[in-house]
Amino acid sequence: MILPIVAYGDPVLKKVGEDINEDYPKLDELIGNMFETMYNAYGVGLAAPQIGLPIRLFVIDASPFAEDEELTADQKKELDGFKRVFINATIVEEEGEEWGFNEGCLSIPDVREDVYRKPKITIEYLDENFEEKTEVFDGLIARVIQHEYDHIEGILFTDKLSALKKRLIKGRLANISKGKINVDYRMRFPAQKKKR
């Protein structure tokens, strides 16, 4: 089922996610819905806060990223077929010299900015079968993971911009939070909170 993606300005995007356990209700269904929602919006990653759930869960399928013509053959190979579920993730180390890359976010449509991140990470997480993993990633995969990981920490890529950049996009962000934007996927705007 395709779920609405929560727009910039919703408080859930600023919450630090809570760990979940194997008894989390309908987890397999939730993971499937997250992938379906992400594909519908042409994304490569989606975190649970982006669908309104303040939990430590995100999914990534970097394969569409591999079709970018500006990437090298090695980068394309690295991204193609990379599909993972991350539960209760913790980045334990970030290494190297920060590098800039133009990032966007499904919760912040039509805003793209250069974000600086370290190129190599070590991350501990549980997969969809609740098997413990500790892995090292670098390059664009590390960047996609860092972006989604930030979501479960209550951080948006716009939080990493300079004060000047933030001022320059302030009006666009305000319009997104008010729903004054056209997108070709389902979104839920802060002004359209569900009625109880």
TrEMBL record:
Q: Which GO terms describe its biological process?
A: translation
Q: Does the keyword Membrane apply?
A: no
Q: Locate the residues binding Fe cation.
A: C105, H147, H151
The protein's UniProt keywords, in alphabetical order, are: Hydrolase, Iron, Metal-binding, Protein biosynthesis
MF terms per GO, please? Answer: metal ion binding; peptide deformylase activity
Q: Which cofactor does it need?
A: Fe(2+)
* Entry's cofactor comment: Binds 1 Fe(2+) ion.
Instruction: Give the enzyme class.
Output: hydrolase
**What InterPro entries does its record include?**
Peptide_deformylase, Peptide_deformylase_sf
What EC number(s) does the entry state?
3.5.1.88
Q: Can you say what this protein is called?
A: Peptide deformylase
Please tell me the species this chain comes from. Answer: Aestuariibaculum sediminum
Originating gene? def
